[in-house]
Write a structure and sequence with these properties.
The structure is a single chain. The chain has 260 residues and is of the alpha/beta class. The protein has a single domain, classed as Ribonuclease Z/Hydroxyacylglutathione hydrolase-like (Metallo-beta-lactamase, Chain A), CATH 3.60.15. The protein has a 6-stranded mixed beta sheet with strand order 1-2-3-4-5-6, with helices on one face. The chain has a 6-stranded mixed beta sheet with strand order 7-8-9-10-13-14. A two-stranded antiparallel sheet has the order 11-12. Strand 2 and strand 3 form a beta hairpin. Helix 5 runs antiparallel to helix 6. The N and C termini lie far apart (46 Å). The structure holds zinc ion and fe (iii) ion. The site of zinc ion has 4 residues, from loops.
């Protein structure tokens, strides 16, 4: 049976990712139960098997208890964070199986201290990544609990995944991220092209996600903080910045985005 991947919009800009094979379903980061219950009701015969959580923030976990009451779904999430219990505690190196697929658990601290990502090397011939609020299309999560060095390491880990990996981010922040990205790299043609495509998608009311790792490597300044054009933009902004200090460069990039 073929596997379908659906972003369920929630709140103003969240996506709850639904993966299903027509019989069993997994959701990632259900901040609200209702979009998931609606999606299940629209597909008779589909039952929610698993709820996977990338991190503890309420906009990713707020729907868990209601979904637990309405379904027999099992919850799994970061061992190092406070999440709705009972939940299977996950850490780096663990594996999750659902719908006949095997997902590796990655630890990607930065946005939160115990943030996880779920990576499936082969979901119907293409790799698949659920990365919560760590990597966004054209951007990355804010550093609420982690250090710039941790986030840079986490993004390096995700950037090293296969180029054709579908990237399922938990927010539709793409257009504002790409506006910032274009201010940093006005000469990046792939970025300008992606931005135009995403504007068309949003004008048509469609998600810009999933993205692809290969595309993000070409357009996302937070995966490109060692590129000369990005370093130059930052040293122009802050002449005191040492271009050889990659963590300082990344930290300055994240700070500039916060102020943008
Ligand atoms: Zn978050
Ligand atoms: Fe979030």
């Amino acid at each position: 049976m073929t596997i379908e991947l659906i972003p369920l919009p929630a709140f103003s800009d969240n996506y709850i990712w639904l993966l299903h094979d027509g019989r069993q379903a997994v959701v990632v980061d259900p901040g609200d139960a209702q979009p998931v219950l609606d999606a299940l009701a629209a597909r008779p015969g589909l039952s929610l098997q698993s709820i996977w959580l990338t991190h503890h923030h309420h906009d990713h976990t707020g729907g868990v208890q209601a979904l637990r009451q309405a379904t027999s779904a099992q919850v799994a999430g970061p061992a190092r964070e406070s999440i709705p219990q009972p939940a299977q505690p996950l850490q780096a190196g663990d594996c999750l199986t659902a719908l006949g697929l095997r997902f590796e658990v990655l630890e990607v601290p930065g946005h939160t201290a115990g943030h996880l990502a779920f990576f499936c090397p082969d979901a119907g011939g293409q790799a698949l990544l659920f990365c919560g609020d760590t990597l966004f299309s054209g951007g990355c999560g804010r550093l609420f609990e982690g250090t710039p060095a941790q986030m840079l390491g986490s993004l390096d880990r995700l950037a090293a995944l296969p180029a054709d990996t579908r990237v399922c981010c938990a927010h539709e922040y793409t257009l504002s991220n790409l506006r910032f990205a274009a201010a940093i790299e006005p000469g990046n043609a792939a970025l300008a092209e992606h931005r135009a495509r995403c504007e068309d998608l949003r004008n048509a009311g469609r998600p810009t996600l999933p993205s692809l790792i290969g595309l993000e490597r070409a357009i996302n300044p937070f995966l490109r903080s060692r590129e000369p054009a990005v370093i130059q933009a930052l040293t122009r902004l802050d002449p005191a910045l040492s271009p050889d200090d990659e963590v300082a460069v990344f930290a300055r990039l994240r700070q500039w985005k916060n102020e943008f």
